[in-house]
Design a protein that fits this description.
Order of helices and strands: HEHHEHHEHHEHHHH
CATH class of the domain at 105-191: Mainly Alpha
Pfam families: EH
CATH superfamily of the domain at 105-191: EF-hand
Structural class: mainly alpha
Shape: elongated
Domain EF-hand: 27-62, 139-174
Helix content: 40-55%
Number of helices: 11
Organism: Panurus biarmicus (Bearded tit)
InterPro entries: EF-hand-dom_pair, EF_Hand_1_Ca_BS, EF_hand_dom, EH_dom
GO molecular function, one term: cadherin binding
CATH architecture of the domain at 105-191: Orthogonal Bundle
Amino acid sequence: FFSQVDSANAGRVLASDAAVFLKKSGLTDLVLGKIWDLADTDGKGILNKQEFFVALRLVACAQNGLDVSLSSLNLPVPPPRFTDTSSPLLLSGTASSDLPWAVKLEDKVKYDAIFDSLNPVNGLLSGDKVKPVLLNSKLPVDILGRVWELSDIDRDGMLDRDEFAVAMFLVYCALEKEPVPMSLPAALVPPSKRKPLSVPGAMPLLPPSTKESHQSLPPVGILAAKTPLTT
């Protein structure tokens, strides 16, 4: 991963390059911001190899529902996942549809209870029914407007059960003083809303991934490592 981002072999990664790469994790901008702050210990906007490894480890923690904090660094987690065909750890067919939903199951149960209490019609809540709940958070109106825009994923002026969960998730993030993203991160799109969107995106991934598998074998060193052992 490091050599992918540090293509010039400078031994360090600039903030702009790291940001583009880390966004492929599907995590929200606010989580990635927190990861960057913890990894960039001296605040120079540059990560050396060790600091970049810390960032990767924190991405893996966040993707597995663990706290983004230095205390999580020693916990056992699988490697981070990035939606990019040139990633050595990307399994074929991994698309945004396979990302774990950022809304945790226990939170979804709470949001569903609020949803049901608002008397949805045909599984949908109108803006008029959702508005008092949003205003109740005492967040600024411009923030609440953005929450509504991001959560009304199919743009029908109504929220279904999953879209309402997204709205509640964003409200609670904002209450924790975390910025509401300008666009909805892939990990926050409910799985029920991903399938139609991910099919066109998944089609062009096939040719690059077959090409990529040939290109990425030598640098990964699998062949070089195994050949001496088998002869």
